[in-house]
Amino acid sequence: MSGTQVYKVYIRAGAERVWTAITSPEWNSRYGYRGRTEMDLRPGGAIAGRSNPGMLAMGAPEIGTDGEVVEADPPHRLVQTFRMLMDPGIAAEGFTRLTYELKEGKDGVTALTVTHELADAPNMARLMAGEFEEMGAGGGWAWVLSDLKSLLETGSAFGD
Question: pTM for this structure?
Answer without folding.
Answer: 0.94
